[in-house]
Each structure stands twice: as C-alpha cells, then as structure tokens.
Design goal:
The chain is 39% helix and 18% strand. With 211 residues, the protein is α/β, with parallel strands linked by helices.
Length: 211
C-alpha cells in the first residue's frame, strides 16, 4: 500500500482533483462496504452513493461501525450521516433492495461500481448491470476459511449462494477491516491512474497477493 501512497504524493494536486471529482457507488454497506466507503471518503473521494436495504442488527455491532443506540436504523442512511459529520462528504443514501428493476438507476452515472454485498443474488445483479452500463466493477468478498478477494470484472465468478457469510462473526472484524482497506486501496488506484488491479488475502499467515 505504501507504494501507491508514494505515487499519490508525487501526483500531488492532480491526484486529489481526480479523487474529489470521482463518483463511486458502494453496493452493500455491511462489514466490508461500511469501512470501504469510509476509507474512500477520508481519502478525498467527493461523490459517494450508498446502496443497502438492511437495518442495523445487534449482531452487526462487532464488525461494523454502528452504536447500540442505532440498532434498527437503515445502514445506508446512518453511514451517509457519519461521513458527512466526519469529513463533510454528502453521500447519497439509498436504503432499498438492489434488483433488476432499479439497478440501472442506482448504478448509472458513476466512475466505479464497488460490490460489497454478502449474497450471490445481489452480486450477480450488480455484475450484470455494471456490464450492461459499461461501468468498471470491483468486487470484494470474504470466505469462512480466512480468504479475502478483491477482483475487477471481467474475471469475477459470483460465488455459490450456499457460501458461508462470515461478516457478522465477532472474530472476523479485523479480517473484514483488512479486506475493506485493501479494496479501498485498489479503488483509489483506479480513480487516480485508471489501473485495474486485483488482490487476494490469506489472513491466517497475512499473505497479500496482488494481480
């Protein structure tokens, strides 16, 4: 990651202008998407759209940036309010289910689509819609065996619907944060340079493979 920060420093004002003008939609603002969106906003991305139908549940508190008093509130709207209070980014929040009926409207007009959903059906819908709109799409996901992946389309196989969701395991918080940080790094690299890189993370032995 330090290599990219070095590149950004040398690009100076041009890099920050690209980030400020960048438009990103984050689909899913749970354990991955909430931290990823926060990283993008704090790095200077000026236009964020947040899509998630879910409301905060008590089981989310161990891996996501919510407070107990916020249980029951829409995640997308909560995160938008957090980002505005923290860094002044006026994120566009959509507390709705993304589907074939509304996906084009929700994804249209951005520079990058980020898929951080935790289910196969929603991931597939994002992938289909981004392809139909000709938009670059970055997928970020976790598996129960300590493996994380961040992949640009084409080349992302939507996982089986039977896959294990580890995002709400209390001990998965660090793993989710690490993967979200990696995804944010690659999204920032794309916005500044246009480069589409992917990465795989094996958390047990802390190995990151860039590709």
């Amino acid at each position: 990651m330090s290599v990219f920060l070095h590149e950004l420093r040398h690009r100076g004002a041009d890099a920050m202008t690209r980030l400020r003008d960048g438009r990103v939609v984050v689909c899913g603002v749970g354990a991955l998407g909430s931290h990823l969106a926060s990283s993008l906003a704090r790095a200077g991305v000026g236009h964020l759209r947040l899509v998630d139908r879910d409301r905060v549940e008590e089981r989310n508190l161990s891996t996501q940036p919510w407070a107990r008093a916020e249980v029951g509130a829409p995640k997308a709207k909560l995160l938008a309010a957090q980002l505005y209070r923290a860094v002044g980014v006026d994120a566009e929040a959509h507390a709705v289910e993304l589907s074939d009926a509304n996906a084009k409207k929700l994804l249209r007009g951005v520079d990058l689509v980020v898929d951080a959903f935790d289910n196969a059906a929603s991931r597939a819908c994002v992938q289909r819609t981004a392809a139909a709109l000709g938009l670059p799409c970055l997928h970020a996901g976790l598996s129960g065996d300590g493996y994380g992946e961040v992949v640009f389309d084409p080349g992302y196989p939507v996982p089986s619907a039977a896959g294990e969701d580890v995002c709400d395991y209390a001990l998965a918080g660090t793993f989710a944060l690490f993967t979200a940080t990696l995804a944010a790094e690659l999204a920032l690299r794309f916005l500044v340079t246009g480069e589409r890189r992917g990465a795989a993370l094996t958390f047990g032995d802390l190995v990151v493979r860039m590709h």
